[in-house]
Amino acid sequence: MRNPSPSSKLSTLLLLLSLLISFLSSKAVASSSSSTKSSLNRGSSLSVEEDSDLLTSPDTKFSSGFYQVGSNAYCFSIWFTHSADKTVVWMANRDRPVNGRGSRISLDRDGNMVLTDVDGSVVWNSNTSSSRAQSAELSNNGNLVLKDKDGHFVWQSFDFPTDTLLPSQPITKGKKLISASANGVVSSGYYSFYFDNDNVLKMMYDGPEISSLYWPNPDYTVFQNGRSNYNSSRYGVLDEMGLFVASDQFGFNASDLGLGIKRRLTLDYDGNLRLYSLDESTGLWGISWAAMAVECKVHGLCGRNGICVYAPTAKCSCAVGYEMRDPSDLGKGCKLKFNLSCDPNQVKFVSLQQIDFYGFDSAHQTNISLESCRQLCLNDCSCEAFMYRNGGDGACFAKSALFNGYRSAAFPGTMYLKLPKDVNISGSSMIKESDPICESSKAERLMGSSDMYKPTHDMKYIYFYWFVSAIGVIEVLFVASGWWYLFRSHGVPTSVEEGYRAIYNQFRRFTYAELKKATKKFKEELGRGGSGYVYKGVLDDDRVVAVKKLGDATQGEAEFLAEMSTIGRIYHMKLVRMWGYCSERSHRLLVYEYVENGSLDKHLFSNSSSGNMPLTFLGWSARFKIAVGTAKGLAYLHHECLEWVIHCDVKPENILLDSDFEPKIADFGLAKLSQRGGSGPNFSQIRGTKGYMAPEWASNLPITAKVDVYSYGVVLLEIVSGNRLSNWVVDGDVEEVELQRFVRMAKEKLDGGEETWISDFVDLRLNGQLNWRQAEVMVEIGISCVEEDRNKRPTMDMVVQTLLACDDESNDMHHSTSSEINI
Ligand SMILES: *[C@@H]1O[C@H](CO)[C@@H](O)[C@H](O)[C@H]1NC(C)=O
Ligand SMILES: *[C@@H]1O[C@H](CO)[C@@H](O)[C@H](O)[C@H]1NC(C)=O
Ligand SMILES: *[C@@H]1O[C@H](CO)[C@@H](O)[C@H](O)[C@H]1NC(C)=O
Ligand SMILES: *[C@@H]1O[C@H](CO)[C@@H](O)[C@H](O)[C@H]1NC(C)=O
Ligand SMILES: *[C@@H]1O[C@H](CO)[C@@H](O)[C@H](O)[C@H]1NC(C)=O
Ligand SMILES: *[C@@H]1O[C@H](CO)[C@@H](O)[C@H](O)[C@H]1NC(C)=O
What confidence score (pLDDT) does residue 355 get? Predict the structure, then answer.
């Protein structure tokens, strides 16, 4: 039939259409065919794709399943079924949401409960393999339990609270409630509620800049606060009546004391601990008790230099002369608008009534005059302000930093802020309540009144695809569309960035134009590596960054995603921090923190200063510090971070030195995530740099973290000797790598029992100015790291331990036994 009839065309079209529709609605279809369960048996699982794939408690008051925390981002959670907005009381790894497709929670055959993401990576597990747990059930009290065949609890969610305690769920030694980071965001914040070492229940702010206890009142003793610290059982629990009692004598009653009310005790994102009662007719929560009557007394709320103003809800503000660091996040505090001079003649003091900044007193004196107190602060460059209390005792507090600012009519003293002399402050009020524009975000961040206290359903999370090539082309398409969705469909980049930042600590996407501007059209080249060129740049917020432009389009893409997926969520002092990336058309760029002193090789191997970077000769203590720091960074990658990471290209070029010559490991472009407990990843291509590569790269052995140990060993020996050991040399008629000769000779000397062997191996340029004991240890470690047999190599953890063990001796460098050696 050459010309199909219109009706057959139409039916084909309809068929296609219906196929499409049924495909698109497969989620809905599937969900209608499954039903909620009362228990999950061994070998079965719940899927993120089916809304009704839930566990419910027998009385249906609690449900457990996948809770949506953002666009396509879910967390396995427990919530109140009948609250208006599914109030969550527990989450499994809230800092790592899973994808809305393909993720599942399963009770494995070995009794382990495992949450897996779409790529199969384990995001959370109950650590109960080999426990023979038979089933997972949700109890009427909201406790998710794993039971063995005799009905014994093998694991329970009550032992791992998130930010909420339920009635009958005790808080005990080692357990902590940790607040969420912001309203409507589930990731971990900075506030915690826990039993401290003195057996007293406390609340603490532990932020990026400071940590500070704020409850019970830090100005009082344990007993003044009505607590006791002699009972070491460390136990506190809320009962069904709404009565809380703890072993430190702390206790409170719900304002609606009585049975039959659903309650929860939650450490809110604003650092206040509140008891809530559910009104089951409306599904809304009312507050029946709160730990902090005055929200502003919570520490850390308004950030550095910020002042919390309570009127009567909490608001953040800045003092005169200061401005918001980030109007969209008042928690970041304020910054001085001017540069302060250390010259006492260039500054003046401005008084602020009824304001106190808690803590950070660099000096405290009593019975002195206001003028002496002023002089004290004037002559100390680091003093930013002082508080003077005239009432009888003439108390003077000099402040080295301004945190926990709070305005209260009850403060007896006056705060004097240091400002540049030529600033005109007349006519401006001393505290600026921030601009109306910020009002809404402020209200969101700080709220003390109950009506605002509803968990919101703001979608602050976006799922991000980590993995690179697991499923191939489909995955790449999926990734591409995911990215597109992430950053295009929302239209409002800030909201996306916000959620994104919440999970990944300021890790964000940059536009190409932004980076072009920051680097002044890629003007200043810092270096070039296997994966691309690196340029220096300055962002709009004055952060100096290193922008790496990846070359080679196809290879670049995979490398780009690999690098992203790894570094985006790894943060450690000894690792170069990645601030973000850019992916636009064919452009792939990575934005890193700028590390001032360049790479180790330049300082270690070259004699003359090359380029525009003045070189510093590295003395012994700097070298030792670099050895220890690099080992710590690698140990973190291998043993501590969320997923084990092998660097695969450890070499002096990838060890950067900051302004204090502390090392930071760079370039994870070649790193690959290894699977925990897996048999070792297969590498599709050989990675690394000749001379630093372990022998197993050449053989067909699986690649393990021991390849990094080998490379580290080479670097360590180079640090001691000051020579490139990865170069080829001719020795007699044998051509070999310098390293082999070095190791052979060192072993001979070591075995020969010579006491002074080490002097043959250290950098002559040090002129004997070194700690011989440390050098010996470093050479010994270096040699063991470059063993052919990788099983004989130590782990990075062991290396760190060994190095730190001789760090203590660094002070008596001139008295160590072997220091008499003369060269
Ligand atoms: C399981 O063990 C890992 C590693 O020790 C730990 O990080 C994780 O929190 C544990 N999970 C639970 C549910 O205890
Ligand atoms: C310590 O506290 C626990 C739990 O509150 C209580 O049962 C116990 O009696 C207390 N011990 C003493 C010696 O008071
Ligand atoms: C709570 O109420 C009970 C009974 O009404 C009372 O005995 C107890 O002292 C109250 N506790 C507190 C901490 O107010
Ligand atoms: C403060 O000093 C820095 C350099 O020291 C300068 O770049 C900046 O412009 C100064 N800011 C003000 C407000 O004077
Ligand atoms: C304060 O200083 C004055 C004299 O300088 C002295 O007489 C007085 O006893 C001091 N008071 C206290 C409380 O130290
Ligand atoms: C300071 O500012 C006020 C009002 O803004 C103005 O009247 C006054 O002349 C200024 N003083 C100086 C010294 O500039």
Answer: 85
Ligand at minimal distance from the CA of 365 is 5
Distances 659 to 422, 624, 801 between C-alpha atoms, Å:
33, 16, 25
Provide CATH 3.50.4.10 ranges for the chain.
302-436
- Give me 605's structure tokens: 């191997």
447: pLDDT confidence band, cut at 50, 70 and 90? very low
Of residues 140 and 733, more confidently modeled: 140
CB 465 within 8 A of CB 73: no
Calculate how far, in angstroms, residue 60's C-alpha sits from the geometric centre of ligand 1. 29
Q: What are φ and ψ of residue 688, in 5° steps? A: 120, -175
Active-site positions?
A: 649
* Residue of 399, 379, 403, 380 lying closest to 388 (CA atoms): 399
Grade residue 4 by pLDDT with cuts at 50, 70 and 90: very low
Lowest mean pLDDT among 137-141, 176-180, 270-274, 577-581: 577-581
Residue 461 is encoded by which pair of tokens? 């999370």
Query: What CATH number has the domain spanning 29-156?
Result: 2.90.10.10
| Atom 13, ligand 3: residue with shortest CA distance | 252
**Of all protein residues, whose CA lies closest to atom 8 belonging to ligand 2?**
247
Q: What DSSP line would sit under 139-188, residue for residue?
A: -TTS-EEEE-TTS-EEEEGGGS-SSEE-TT--EETT-EEEEEEETTEEEE
> In the sheet that 347-353 helps form, which strands lie side by side, from edge to edge?
347-353, 414-420, 385-389, 395-399, 361-365
Which one of 350, 426, 429 would you pick to mutate in the ligand 6 pocket, going by the greatest count of ligand atoms within 8 A of its CB?
426
- Beta pairing, strands 171-172 & 135-138: unpaired
pLDDT mean over 303-317: 80
CA 725 / ligand 6 centre spacing (Å) = 68
The HSE-up count of residue 303 (CA atoms within 13 Å, CB side) is 23
pLDDT (average), residues 680-685: 39
Higher pLDDT, 117 or 435: 117
C-alpha gyration radius of the chain: 31
On the question of a cis peptide bond just before residue 312, with omega within 30 degrees of 0, the verdict is yes
Q: What is the identity of the amino acid at 160?
A: F
Cβ atoms of residues 666 and 655 within 8 Å: yes
Second-level CATH architecture of 161-301+437-474: Orthogonal Prism (2.90)
Both structure tokens of 767: 């002129």
Q: Is the pLDDT of residue 480 over 60?
A: no
What percent of the chain has a predicted confidence (pLDDT) above 90?
Answer: 29
CA–CA separation, 527 and 536 (whole Å): 9
Query: Quick one: pLDDT at residue 29?
Result: 36
What is the structure's pLDDT at 14? 44
Closest CA to 400 of 376, 423, 370: 376
CA–CA separation, 673 and 557 (whole Å): 17
Residue 467 has pLDDT above 90, yes or no: no
Cα 740 to ligand 2 centroid, rounded to whole Å: 66
For residues 118 and 677, the model is more confident at: 118
Write the Ramachandran bin of 761: left for phi over 0, alpha for psi from -120 to 50, otherwise beta. alpha
Please give the average per-residue pLDDT across 312-317, as a whole number: 75
Is 517 annotated for ligand binding?
A: no
Of the listed ranges 365-369, 460-464, 497-501, the one predicted with least confidence: 497-501
**Gap between the Cα atoms of 373 and 21, Å rounded:** 77
Among the bound ligands, the one closest to the CA of 226: 3
* DSSP 8-state code for residue 106: E
Give the Cα separation of 176 and 163 in Å (integer). 8
Ligand 5 centroid to 412 CA: how many Å?
20
The CATH number of 600-823 is 1.10.510.10
**pTM over cut 0.85:** no
Pocket test for ligand 2, best of 200, 245, 247, 250 (most atoms within 8 A of CB): 247
Measured from the CA of 155, which atom of ligand 1 is nearest? Answer: 13
Q: Which CATH class is domain 302-436?
A: alpha beta
